[in-house]
Amino acid sequence: MNLTITDVRLTPILVADPPLLNTQGVHQPYTPRLIVEVVTADGITGVGETYGDAKYLELARPFAERLKGRQVSDLNGLFTVADQVAVDASRVENAVDVGGLRGVQTADKLRLSVLSGFEVACLDALGKALGLPVHALLGGKVRDAVEYSAYLFYKWAGHPEGVPAEKDDWGAALDPAGVVEQARRFTERYGFTSFKLKGGVFPPDEEIAAIKALAEAFPGHPLRLDPNGAWSVETSVKVARELGGVLEYLEDPALGTPAMAEVARRTGVPLATNMCVTTFAEIKEAFTRGAVQVVLSDHHYWGGLRNTQQLAAVCRTFGVGVSMHSNTHLGISLAAMTHVAATVPNLHHACDSHYPWQSEDVLTERLAFEGGRVAVSDAPGLGVELDHERLAALHQRWLDDDGTLRDRDDAAAMRVADPEWVTPAMPRW
Ligand code: GKR
Ligand code: MG
């Protein structure tokens, strides 16, 4: 068996995304992703996926060059390669990613997000070479299926008039009734039993009303609200008091560890985050101050599947919960999330996934949610197969773009409908 990497292919794509609203603006009609293929001397190909904006591509190219000649089994070596790849300082100085939705941007985080795409591709190739599923390479699954929550968004019926976009059949959701209707569709289509609402879009009272409407429509089901840090401490405390009885947790009500610690001190509602704890370096302060009760991993910016397991171990040590949030992603990343989630013993909350919002994929067969769960594949590698024609078509869309969509910018997408729109200063309420 020859596990030497002989070729690495990087394919940036643009994938259709509905007009989902968040505190920064609205999702673009097409969003960038990067598909990674790692080929071994034996002709085995492993696939990975990560963010596809220009700053990730700039790093992925030299990273890919350095991988040739290395072994797909040398997963620790990926961190050495990451350290060797220079990050352009202008990409990270005072930068926040997608307006801050993924926390503060640092050179390390950028490197780790790129590394994760290669780590998943190497694990896929290694699994295929050994005839083992990725979860076995990670120590073995402790569950046969991974539970996901419905990820509800306030949403327009369609992208603004005249903007090239794919149509979707979800309809609009701009008030409590629309949110409940969207939740019903999620349960009918995918069997989800827990719900996360992306907030920070409307004044808090309207979002409180939406959660109360969900609680009435789905009594006893776990509910979360995530305004991406759009509220002040006072507002967060008020929302926590109003919704205390019905929320499983409140996700990033306020921005930053000190504000989250203050909210945690003044309320009994558990707080979750994918914004104030996004790196290992941020854990100590957040945990010692009791700022968060659940950390939501994004295996992309945490640096892959093995780092996600390490994060889970640290959380377990401190009695902090762990789960996963997501950004717009395709089936390769859902498969990767499912494999690692299957190995985490202390996973006590359903993970969330954007996948149902993606009508397009680069796989020959989409992953399925049944009863809100994704079955953990026992096939070699990730258990997914790349559809090269679809990949080429989505890459062609990226090639044809004049550059406006190649970097995700929710505020710019909002300005198409509302030319006066500027990214709101935080806290917004
Ligand atoms: O895609 O609008 C979005 C989300 O707000 C995403 O960017 C967040 O990173 O889903 C994420 C979250 O849980 O905060
Ligand atoms: Mg979040």
From TrEMBL:
Catalytic activity from the UniProt record: D-glucarate = 5-dehydro-4-deoxy-D-glucarate + H2O
Pfam families, per the entry: MR_MLE_C (PF13378), MR_MLE_N (PF02746)
Entries under SUPFAM superfamilies matching the protein: Enolase C-terminal domain-like (SSF51604), Enolase N-terminal domain-like (SSF54826)
Cofactor(s) listed: Mg(2+)
EC number: 4.2.1.40
EC top class, as a word: lyase
Recorded family membership: Belongs to the mandelate racemase/muconate lactonizing enzyme family. GlucD subfamily.
Name this protein carries in UniProt: glucarate dehydratase
Organism of this sequence: Streptomyces tibetensis
